[in-house]
């Protein structure tokens, strides 16, 4: 669902995918290979929202701001399920965990990881490569090369997802029984703990 508001029409690159059950409104600019999941609300009614190339905004996320503010989610920013970004700017290749809340005028540095359910207070400045957790959120350590490599691989799955959605996603009637030849999906990505426990 894509809506104009006060004459502002969202701009979405044709390589990006906005799920039909997401809502994108007003002064929103979405770059290349972005994924916007069902239930996401990106409201550019009171200010501009820019999603640079390769950003994903997953299911049930909200992106909004106070009037007159403009925000940017930089290239390859990764916003996990249920997160709220209210008037904050996200750095390049950062990870925002599920159900995190990031408040107005906060700045998340490049390649930082904000843990699930963290609360980042207004005007907080998080330096690049920081691992942030808690309520209120605190920096607990620096993000290692291994951690950011793990994050980058996960984001690449989301950058492929728009093309996969365009080629295979379609509305259907459900099956009434499980087919005998139904296969499980490939195990192409593991949790951070699984990734490091095998080394």
From TrEMBL:
Pfam families hit by this protein: Hexapep
The keyword Transferase appears for this protein: yes
Keywords in alphabetical order: Transferase
GO MF annotation terms: transferase activity
Keyword Flavoprotein: no
Matching InterPro entries: Hexapep, Transf_Hexapept/Carb_Anhydrase, Trimer_LpxA-like_sf
SUPFAM superfamilies: Trimeric LpxA-like enzymes (SSF51161)
Source species, domain of life: Bacteria
Protein's name in the database: Transferase hexapeptide repeat family protein
Organism of this sequence: Winogradskyella vincentii
